[in-house]
Hints:
- The complex is a heterodimer.
- Chain A is globular.
- Helix content of chain A is 76%, strand content 0%.
- By secondary structure, chain A is mainly α.
- Chain A has two domains: 7-83, no CATH class; 85-147.
- The longest helix of chain A has 33 residues, at 9-41.
- By secondary structure, chain B is mainly alpha-helical.
- Chain B has a single domain, classed as 434 Repressor (Amino-terminal Domain) (Orthogonal Bundle).
- Chain B has a two-stranded antiparallel sheet with strand order 1-2.
- The longest helix of chain B has 11 residues, at 42-52.
- The model of chain B has no long low-confidence stretch (mean pLDDT 92).
- Classes of the chains: A mainly alpha, B mainly alpha.
- Chains A and B meet through helix 5 of A and helix 3 of B.
Amino acid sequence: xxxxxxxxxxxxxxxxxxxxxxxxxxxxxxxxxxxxxxxxxxxxxxxxxxxxxxxxxxxxxxxxxxxxxxxxxxxxxxxxxxxxxxxxxxxxxxxxxxxxxxxxxxxxxxxxxxxxxxxxxxxxxxxxxxxxxxxxxxxxxxxxxxx
Amino acid sequence: xxxxxxxxxxxxxxxxxxxxxxxxxxxxxxxxxxxxxxxxxxxxxxxxxxxxxxxxxxxxxxxx
Lengths: 147, 64
């Protein structure tokens, strides 16, 4: 069964939308994580307190807009997955299937590791989806390049 | 399954991309076939044999 129902140009468009939406929705988390790591490494200089506290969330209009961009990022990745390659053939279908399998195994392994070492961590649907889509994209890209 | 696709492609002085374009498949597919990582479909094998002007049996052979 072929689920690639969108034309090839949707692929580039989806990727651009995904990158923009990811930066806008995940930018604050990235900065917070970076600052936390920096503060841990050099406690004498607390960057989180030293820098301006204006966040991307404030700039683009609050938490609701950030959530919208998160949703948009996932939709864009789904659009990417549903887009056709320039040339579709049996071999690419096999690579695609293998990528789905590896991505699925990766999220299962990740969930298992989290459950074993940190039972309190809530591994939600949103995290699973994002991880699955990212894993699929990276694995498919790498397999296609090394083929 | 071993094959002589690379040999025949070089004989016709074609690159992997040129051969892929003539057969309507991706360059990755040609590469995978030449490296014996992928066995082509019957249709693709016949197309290749016709393009190279040889028989399918000559182009593809089952390793004992």
